[in-house]
Amino acid sequence: MNHAAGGVPVTPELLLFGAVAGAAALCAVGVVAFNNAIRSALCLVVNFFLLAFLYFTLNAEMLGITQIVVYTGAIMVLFLFVIMLLNLGAPNLLVEKRDPKKYLGILLGCGMFVLLGSQVLPELIKVHAAPLTPELAKFGGPEAIGRTLFTSYMYPFEAVSVLLLIGIVGSILLAKRRI
Amino acid sequence: MPEEAHRARGREIVKVNSLLQMAEFVQHLHPVWQALIRAVLLVIPSLLLLIPIIWWERRLLGWMQDRIGPNRVGNITFSQTSKMVPGFLHGKKFRLFGLAQPLADFGKLLFKEDITPSAIDRIIYFTAPAIALFPAFALAGTIPWGPYTSLTPCGDVNIGVLYIMAVSSLGVYGIVLAGYSANNKFSLMGGLRSSAQMISYELAMGMSLACIVMASGSLKPTEIVAAEHGPLWGFDFAPFCWFENWNILTPFGLVACLVFLVCMVAETNRAPFDLPEAENELVAGYHTEYSSMKFAVFFMGEYAAMFAYGLILCTLFIGGWHLLPIRFGYMSHAYPAFGDVWNMLDTLNGSSILAPVWFVGKGLMVITAYIWLRASMPRLRYDQLMSLGWKSLLPLATANLIVVAIWILATKLASPLIGWCAVLVSAVILYLLYKTINKLNTDKRVDLASREIIMVDEPPRRREVEMVDTAAAPS
Question: Which of A75, B110, B410, B430 could form a disulfide with B422 if both were Cys (CB 3.0 to 4.6 A apart)?
Answer without folding.
Answer: B410
